[in-house]
Task: structure prediction
Amino acid sequence: MAILYKNLKYSIINSFPLIILYYLSISEIDTHFSNMFEILSFNLQIIIIYYWMLKNSTVLGNGHIFFAGIINDVVMGLPLGISSISYLTVSFVASYIRQVTVNMSLFTDWFTFILAIFFSNLVYLVLILNFSDLQLSYVDISYNAFFTFLFYPFIWVIFNFYKKIMFLGADD
Amino acid sequence: MSSSRDDFGIAIRSALLKKGARQKFSLVFLLILAIIIFLLDTYQFKAINFTKFLINDGIYRLTNISTAPFKLLPKLNDKIKETAFAMKENKDLKAELENLKNKEFQVEFLKNQNDSLRKILESDVKIKGKSIIAKVLLDKDSPFLKSIVINRGSKSGINKGMPVVDGNYLVGKIVEVNYLSSRVLLLNDLNSRIPISFGEDSVQAILSGKGESKPVLEYLPELYEPYGNLTVFTSGKDGIFLPGIPVGKTEMDELDVKVNLFSDPNQLSFVTVQLINISKDNF
Result:
């Protein structure tokens, strides 16, 4: 019983980032604070994916990222699969950075995050502009990308703290 | 240069193709799958449309459920505010109700007091209007006759039957008139019979002296259950006494209802005689 409880506790704690990712995708709650500050919006999903794929890919997993993207598309009314491609791009950049980087710090993570944001938004824009009739505001996307980049250190600190209370095994 | 390109290629390949114990699908596989889904959706394939409708319905309901707590938050906030306001209002209303109750009690008390004062005032007016103060000359106690002699007689306009009061309270009536003096038969005398009324229902009875300090009430209504501490007033039914002159308080003594007189007959030094017109027939 005690072992079962312990395993359940570990499982819940370890699944917390994944739960947040799914919840942000499935719920109408977004990180657009236009009612508070007109230009303030950031993409928390990308931050979550990048951080955890960089630190420990077993926490999220590409399959969950893919499904989270599909769900986000359905909820947001975007062409199906576009968010998945965008999120998987971030995951790919994170995986690549992890492969080529030895010492990782906040600053290396932060500045390499620019690449993730860039490719993610690039893929997103290219697909939207070429394969759908949706109209996008480049200014809004720019602000979103900027604030996503800006908020990364704050989320990094929070996740870094949370990572210490997690019970992580060896990374794949 | 060649080595650097190899490293880059290895890193890319590793990132795209790597699978592990928990990574069931490689990144490239999922990317291709996502691109296929995207293209199918973009070009409106029937199969993907049907699947999309199913997924949409499921996810919309799931979204609705998952966001319900957050949708409830503003309502909850409003409810909390409403509840807090209602609680405060309830507290205020309770205080107000308590205040009103107190005021009601105060009004009742004042009403009762007003009634009593009005009765006293009425008797006061009578006393002040048509009355004369007399000094008690003699109050020799007799076992058979409870009376006093006052220093006022017919000279002062005193007639038989006139009520005599001590302050505002009835003490007796004139039974003998001389030119300069009069005899007052006290309420506790054996011969004293005064019609009175008492209680909220204005119960009528006769106050009869028994030669003791406390006269008793007689001729009470049938099936009347007497109880004590009720103010007894003159009823004026006999046409001699004016109604509403306070006499005393009822007091239960076994089966008898006695009246504890407001004015002690043994402690009289000055009394007031009410100068009212009394026909000889009535007396």
Remarks:
- Residues 132-274 of chain B form a domain with the Thrombin, subunit H fold (CATH 2.40.10.340).
- The interface with chain A takes residues 7-8, 10-12, 14-16, 18-27, 30-31, 33-42, 48, 52, 55-56, 59-60, 62-63, 66-67, 70 of chain B (CB under 8 Å).
